[in-house]
Q: What sequence folds into this?
């Protein structure tokens, strides 16, 4: 029996397929403007990996901002609950999650059974999200995948005063014009993101000393991981494939239906 | 808690019709008076000592109440926008900007802006907030008529409640003195006593009506009940208000007896905090119903309780009613009252509706939500929006949070 | 004189350094005062040091989530600082309810992070014969609370002494303002703000001493006649106006000759009448204070209110023979934003050029701000 979890985000769509032996396939693709088309594409890619067809999928849970647009899902569940289920599966001891996605960030507190107790989101502002890094990488003319390691090379601490993504862009440009080292700019941008996360975490009243599990695309960025650990004073665990954790959780919930 | 199939679903309350008529009569009555000038008209804030105005034969309208109507009619965004063109900032209280916009529009003959009937006097108490006194200043400035502010201190820890009440009473006496000069009439203490007596009955009946919703399953939702603050607010000086609530209490009790419920799929009893989003009630109701969430009560209903009125001490009890209210009290008291409601009504989850332009409710909201969660262990979500201006409202985001709440509730059951 | 100005700048930048030292040296208590209008004289009379809490330029990371982002910067920044332990050195906190946001902020603060001494002063928003009585009782309540907390008696003599000292301080600062009025540019806007601000951060005795020295030096100074356009600056209630922006303003062909900043004119133009009972004097100084957007004026019997604040500002511009008015506006300030509409109508009536310059404290000077200031200067 194959269960599918579909996480339709505003930037990327993720699919995880779960078979009798656990996760058997996954795929991540850009969402673009057509949510249904994107989902079809990503499911197809995933199925190709295990040489199965759509009819082999028995249950589908869709989640994420586009979840209600998927006509063939058997259930829609919010990304909060799905993320919690995914993290609990990978780290059964975890009680505190930070998810930094393309357009929003979340802090989620869960109990020992992986159930959501409390959550907080920053939804009004993209400053603490993947979008911020995307724009930064673009402005610095650096590959987004290299941005983290670039930041780690910094030896000179500066601050980016603008917390707004839009204004930060012009600030970066003027810093470059003033011959500021790119790595220093990158480090400052990462610090800016990490510091936005602090408020989110504290607002879910976490137990002191407890570590966090970091999920979402931005978790692949080593500078963010290091900074968060330092600034929160907590251990930060990152799953092997942090971007698909929510989709994995959706698939697990599909399986347990 | 699940509803078995013995219940009948009827979302309509008979009392709604009666309320609609009272509202219409109230607005029409004001418009007529603006022409005939038989009675002077005043605009008052919701927690002002309005009894004093009624005792001096003023016909009183309530600009804050007007916000709810404008929101429901979907004209509020236009009214608010007009103020933005006049350089009122977007973050400023939308109740204020909605009404100022309507008033400015009407004064300048901009179709189809329509405000409340032109008043002769403005009364405000700053017990709900301070911004409202600025709102009234702008109205006074625009309309060229006098305003009077009753300054209500917050009854903080260490302050004697009696002192605050006496201070408000002193200002009420100043108000009476001014009004006697302004109207050329002597203040009638007997009339005040009668008005306060009617007000007390109305307040008692309001409370009795609200209490019926403690029943499980609730005979009505919070969204059904909330409009019915109007008689207590605007009409408690006459017997019709108490009568309305008496009939409504009967109606709710009958629904309980006959197992009539306001919605199907009544799975969870939910607490609502904050000012309702007047323009989105229908959509919110539908969404909540699809998720099985029944809004049972809210501290919003407490604001209109006016429960200190006492005809044995007319002026003093009016002053007390003004001085001691949910808003002019400490945050910790508000948090305790909220907790009391959740326990009393046996509620399972909470929706905290943040209104970004209302600083008095939004600044402390997180504290109250946190307090409630820690004290009662119920899951809570916070949504964002505004009572009247839909530019603050992200429907998708809020619906997602409703769903997350249901998922937390379901998880609790397992 | 540069040394003195540098000292004032240091005190302002490193806001609590001196207070923390003083506490260690004297072993007495420090009480944080939220702006505006906290009666420092009374706190001083109890033997404690009143220190005004202004929030800072640090990036707000925690404040937004806990208190909301639709709230003024001063509150978000102060709450942020609170969560980060910045105010751990304080023994107590006091503040006046000047607006809705501060009032609920104070209540949240005390519940989330209780202090041994936490005092909310319910100053009436409307000042008349009835309300002044309540204010007097509030001031007495503060006195009782302080006496209990410090163990010191606050008698008439102690109050008179403190009032005298703070009044002397404000008189000296007013004198400085007069010198600037007569010779615009004799002291830069940023320095002026540093002087007033630091008075609220260090022991007033020390500040008075430095001020005396400064006035001695500056009295002898004359400068070349000023070519820049004279303007009045207002706004930034409860925050320290961004000093980089003040520098920018004065580099772009403008010179500030008077202001209504809380760290400025608003603070120094209030006098305390020493002829009466000290508590009454303090209360009446509130009643007769310069018009403020955080007060309510109902102007009974005069057929409609007018903005007293607008009258005050228009007068200020005229008396200083200023060519225009620059408003350093911080977002989300309810009192100022409401008053602004009435103010701008008056300014238009009086043909006074004005510009509302919005800025976010801590953001410094951006291209956008530079352009706006330059454009305003060019328009004069």
A:
């Amino acid at each position: 029996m194959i269960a599918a979890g579909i996480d339709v985000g505003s930037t990327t769509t993720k699919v995880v397929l779960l078979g009798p032996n656990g996760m058997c396939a996954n795929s991540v693709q850009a969402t673009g403007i057509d949510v249904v088309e994107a989902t079809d594409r990503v499911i197809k890619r995933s199925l190709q990996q295990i040489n199965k067809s759509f009819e082999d999928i028995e249950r589908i849970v869709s989640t994420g901002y586009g979840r209600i647009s998927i006509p063939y899902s058997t259930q829609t569940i919010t990304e909060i609950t799905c993320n919690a289920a995914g993290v609990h599966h990978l780290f059964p001891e975890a009680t505190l999650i930070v998810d930094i996605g393309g357009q929003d960030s979340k802090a989620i507190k869960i109990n020992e059974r992986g159930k959501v107790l409390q959550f907080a989101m920053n939804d009004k502002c993209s400053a603490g999200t993947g979008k911020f890094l995307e724009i930064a990488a673009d402005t610095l003319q650096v590959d987004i995948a290299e941005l983290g390691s670039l930041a780690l090379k910094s030896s000179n601490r500066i601050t980016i005063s603008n917390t707004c993504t839009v204004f930060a862009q012009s600030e970066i440009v003027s810093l470059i014009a003033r011959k500021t080292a790119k790595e220093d700019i990158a480090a400052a941008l990462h610090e800016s993101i990490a510091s936005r996360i602090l408020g989110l975490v504290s607002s879910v009243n976490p137990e002191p000393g407890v570590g966090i599990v970091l999920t979402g695309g931005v978790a692949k960025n080593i500078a963010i991981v290091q900074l968060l650990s330092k600034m929160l004073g907590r251990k930060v665990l990152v799953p092997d494939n942090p971007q698909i954790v929510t989709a994995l959780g959706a698939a697990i919930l599909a399986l347990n239906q | 808690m699940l509803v078995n199939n013995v219940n009948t679903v009827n979302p309509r309350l008979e009392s709604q019709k009666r309320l609609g008529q009272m509202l219409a009569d109230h607005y029409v009555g004001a418009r007529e008076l603006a022409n005939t000038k038989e009675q002077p008209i005043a605009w008052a804030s919701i927690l002002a000592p309005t009894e004093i105005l009624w005792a001096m034969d003023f016909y009183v309208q309530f600009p804050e109440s007007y916000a709810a109507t404008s929101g429901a009619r979907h004209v509020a965004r236009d009214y608010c926008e007009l103020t933005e063109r006049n350089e009122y900032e977007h973050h400023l209280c939308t109740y204020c900007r909605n009404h100022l916009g309507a008033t400015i529009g009407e004064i300048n003959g901009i179709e189809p802006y329509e405000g409340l009937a032109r008043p002769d006097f403005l009364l405000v108490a700053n017990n709900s907030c301070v911004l409202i006194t600025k709102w009234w200043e702008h109205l006074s400035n625009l309309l060229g008529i006098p305003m009077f502010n009753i300054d209500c201190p917050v009854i903080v820890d260490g302050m004697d409640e009696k002192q605050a009440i006496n201070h408000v009473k002193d200002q009420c006496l100043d108000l009476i003195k001014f009004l006697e000069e302004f109207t050329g009439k002597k203040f009638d203490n007997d009339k005040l006593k009668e008005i306060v007596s009617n007000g007390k009955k109305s307040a008692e009946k309001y409370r009795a009506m609200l209490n019926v919703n403690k029943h499980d399953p609730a005979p009505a939702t919070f969204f059904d009940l909330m409009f019915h603050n109007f008689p207590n607010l605007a009409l408690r000086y006459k017997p019709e208000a108490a009568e309305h609530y008496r009939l409504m209490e009967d109606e709710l009790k009958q629904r309980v007896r006959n197992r009539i419920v306001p919605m199907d799929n009544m799975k969870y009893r939910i607490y609502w905090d904050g000012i309702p989003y007047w323009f989105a009630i229908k959509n919110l109701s539908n969404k909540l119903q699809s998720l099985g969430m029944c809004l049972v009560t809210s501290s919003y209903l407490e604001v209109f309780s006016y429960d200190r009125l006492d005809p044995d001490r007319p002026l003093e009890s009016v002053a007390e009613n003004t001085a001691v209210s949910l808003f002019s009290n400490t945050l910790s008291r508000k948090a305790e009252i909220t907790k009391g409601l959740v326990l009393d009504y046996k509620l399972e989850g909470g929706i905290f509706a943040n209104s970004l332009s209302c600083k008095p409710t939004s600044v402390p909201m997180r504290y109250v939500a946190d307090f409630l969660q820690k004290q009662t262990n119920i899951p809570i979500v916070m949504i964002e929006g505004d009572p009247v201006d839909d530019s603050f409202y992200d429907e998708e985001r809020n619906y997602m949070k409703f769903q997350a709440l249901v998922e937390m509730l379901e998880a609790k059951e397992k | 004189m540069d040394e003195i100005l540098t000292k004032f700048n240091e005190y302002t930048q490193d806001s609590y350094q001196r207070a923390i030292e003083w506490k260690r040296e004297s072993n007495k208590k420090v009480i944080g005062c939220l702006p505006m209008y906290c009666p420092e004289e009374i706190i001083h009379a109890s033997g404690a040091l009143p220190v005004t809490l202004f929030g800072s330029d640090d990036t707000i990371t925690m404040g937004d989530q806990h208190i909301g982002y639709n709230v003024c910067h001063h509150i978000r920044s102060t709450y942020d600082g609170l969560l980060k332990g910045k105010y751990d050195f304080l023994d107590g906190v006091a503040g006046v309810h000047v607006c809705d946001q501060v009032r609920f902020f104070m209540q949240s603060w005390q519940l989330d992070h209780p202090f041994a001494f936490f005092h909310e002063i319910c100053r009436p928003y409307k000042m008349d014969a009835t309300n002044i009585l309540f204010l007097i009782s509030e001031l007495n309540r503060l006195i009782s609370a302080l006496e209990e907390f410090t163990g010191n008696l606050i008698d008439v003599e102690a109050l008179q002494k403190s009032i005298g000292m703070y009044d002397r301080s404000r008189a000296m600062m007013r004198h400085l303002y007069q010198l600037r009025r007569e010779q615009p540019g004799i002291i830069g806007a940023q320095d002026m703000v540093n002087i007033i601000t630091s008075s609220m951060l260090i022991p007033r005795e020390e500040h008075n001493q430095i001020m005396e020295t400064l006035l001695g030096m500056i009295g002898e100074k004359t400068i070349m006649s000023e070519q820049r356009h004279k303007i009045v600056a207002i706004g930034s209630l409860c925050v320290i106006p961004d000093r980089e922006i003040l520098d920018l303003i004065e580099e772009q062909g403008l010179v500030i000759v008077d202001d209504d900043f809380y760290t400025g004119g608003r603070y120094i133009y209030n006098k305390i009448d020493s002829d009466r009972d000290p508590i009454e004097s303090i209360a009446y100084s509130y009643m007769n204070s310069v018009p403020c957007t955080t007060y309510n004026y109902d102007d009974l019997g005069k057929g409609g209110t007018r903005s007293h604040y607008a009258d005050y500002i228009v007068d200020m511009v005229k008396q200083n023979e200023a060519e225009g008015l620059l408003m350093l506006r911080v977002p989300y300030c309810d009192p100022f934003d409401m008053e602004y509409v009435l103010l701008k109508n008056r300014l238009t009536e009086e043909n006074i050029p004005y510009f509302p310059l919005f800025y976010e404290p801590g953001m410094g000077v951006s291209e956008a701000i530079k352009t706006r200031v330059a454009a305003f200067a060019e328009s004069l």
